[in-house]
Amino acid sequence: MEPRPVLCCPEPSVPAPVPQADAAFDAALARYAKALGHPVRVAIVRLLLRRESCVCGEIVGELPLAQSTVSQHLKQLKEAGLIRGEIDGPRVCYCVEKAAVALVQTLVARLQEGPGAQGG
Question: Which fold has domain 22-109?
């Protein structure tokens, strides 16, 4: 029997605003950069972005790491707001917080111009 898709992450109704003050812009970008500052966490986000539903147990199977190590990386991504974890029975299912990923893309794109830059 094929596992049923778990839909834990509906699309956010409001996209995250781009910080306009220099300090807020810098802090937001630094927080996301720190969360993405390890290749395993980048791989986890990429894995979750490729899925249409939440990923429960497959993350550990996709990475050559122990469950406890993967759990620590998931915790850091969740604390930064880049992923969401929902309890589904005895397991936690994860998916990307798409608004946060879009904000990261915007922050990086506007890095050279600064927080008040117009355009995309």
Answer: Arc Repressor Mutant, subunit A (1.10.10)
- The per-residue DSSP string of the chain comes to -PPPP----PPPSSPPPPP-SHHHHHHHHHHHHHHT-SHHHHHHHHHHHH-SS-BSSHHHHHSSS-HHHHHHHHHHHHHTTSEEEEEETTEEEEEE-HHHHHHHHHHHHTTTT-TT----
Q: What angle do CA 101, 104, 111 make, to 5 degrees?
A: 165
Please write the tens of the pLDDT for every residue from 2-31. Answer: 444 545 666 655 667 788 788 888 899 999
Task: Tell me the pTM.
Answer: 0.79
